[in-house]
Amino acid sequence: MNLLVFIYLLLFSEIGKEVEFVQLSVGDSFGEISLLTGLPRTVSAIAASDNTVLLRIRHEDFVEVLNLYQNIRFDILTLVAERLKETEKLSQQLADNHHHS
């Protein structure tokens, strides 16, 4: 059975409005930037279904995986770069909307 499960990543605008950042589905990940930097997460995650299963990895384990499987480093860097680009784009849109309202 194929289940379609979504996780919504949300940002809060300068005025405190909740804004959908990205919609994730089966096999996607989130939290990479925080995991790499140790800084607080910049988005909140909400599962759209009660049957969503999440896996959590500790920083130490993540670093070990990166050391053992060096070929995934580029994939992680690419994902982080894409997320940063999406975040910047959304931040600009929010700023533009805020200034026009």
List the helices and strands and how they pair.
Elements: E1 7-12, E2 18-24, H1 32-37, E3 44-47, H2 59-68, H3 73-100
Please characterize this protein's 3D structure.
With 101 residues, this protein is of the alpha+beta class. It has one domain. Helices cover 44% and strands 17% of the residues. It contains three helices and three strands. The chain has helices at 32-37, 59-68, 73-100; strands at 7-12, 18-24, 44-47. A three-stranded antiparallel beta sheet has the order 2-1-3, covered by helices on one side. The longest helix is centred in the last third of the chain and has 28 residues, at 73-100. It is globular and about 50 Å long. The N and C termini lie far apart (46 Å). The relative contact order is 0.19.
Quaternary class:
single chain
Fraction of helical residues: 40-55%
Strand content: 15-25%
Structural class: alpha+beta
What is the averaged pLDDT score? 78
Low-confidence stretches: none
Report the order of strands and helices: EEHEHH
- The total count of strands amounts to 3
- Rounded to the nearest angstrom, the radius of gyration is 16 Å
Sheet bearing the most strands, described?
3 strands, antiparallel
Strand line-up of the largest beta sheet: 2-1-3
Distance from first to last alpha carbon: 46 Å
